[in-house]
Amino acid sequence: MSVLVITGTGTEVGKTVVTAAVAATALAAGRSVAVLKAAQTGVRPDEPGDAAEVARLAGAVTAAELARYPEPLAPATAARRAGRAPVHPHAVAEAAAKLATEHDLVLVEGAGGLLVRFDPAGGTLADAARMLSAPVLVVASAGLGTLNTTELTARELRCRGLDLAGIVIGSWPAAPDLASRCNLADLPDVAGAPLLGSVPAGSGALSPAAFRAAAPHWLAPRLDGTWDAEAFQVREAPRAS
What we know:
The chain has helices at about 15-30, 50-60, 75-80, 90-100, 125-130, 145-160, 180-190, 210-215, 230-235; strands at about 5-10, 35, 40, 60-65, 70, 105-115, 135-140, 165-170, 195-200. By secondary structure, it is an alpha/beta fold.
């Protein structure tokens, strides 16, 4: 794949850290990487955004951002309130396609979930993925409630004829509860797609060197890593009551 779209089942599920892990792992495999943040919200002009955070953690990536809005809202809402032009899916697709001519891998990170609106016409990250014919990686939370949001996201992708590359758990807790452990088996079932990784909670706080060294161990071979879903599930599986 030359372009991979990364979305989440909602906000605060670990999209940016997962994007950084995918980037770091691809760099370690000798690939050139660009990261495109379609719409950055909730940061001031002088603050680093998500693309900059990916570059800080992952290393030598090309970081790009199409638009920035100060309030932490959905992009269409944030653009309207700021009196600024919105981002349209075709602009996201065009920017990603251009980056793909210069890099082995382009990671397009969305804002929030798959159907968060970019513009008043209802354009979304899913529309950009369709224009790019790009697979979509879904970042999910570990615990209670994730099965519903993951299945809804997977169903929407399939309804739109989009390729669901797989699921990555964005923040695996150090002491997972019963729901999290059971979800390891249930997530690929409800999504109809494989688990492609699990990023430990707090990984974004690691030093860049430690993050880059560890990242390949969090992701499956399809993402250039060494993570083994079956072995992880066996290790973390709940004991029978």
